[in-house]
Known about the structure:
By secondary structure, the chain is mainly alpha-helical. It is 77% helix and 0% strand. The protein has four helices and no strands.
Amino acid sequence: MARKHHKPEEIVAKLRQVEVLLAQGKSAAEAVRTIGVTEQTYYRWRSEYGGLKLDQVKWLKQLEQGNGRLRKAVADLTLEKLVLKEAASGNW
Length: 92
């Protein structure tokens, strides 16, 4: 079965839907089945996105993307530095 990648906005909406269903007295298993994900996925989403508002989720994802770009830049610069250091020492 193919995996579906949910957008952060969809995740927040589904978490709110589960909260409503739980408040209506449904069990966690029934509520999670209603939104179409496994319990494990629900609890993972809840730990990551629980209590966040939509604008906060968008901001978090932007930060994660920026952080990834910065990590790649640092890795590239570190590799360049090591190559230059080795070339300067004459061990090649």
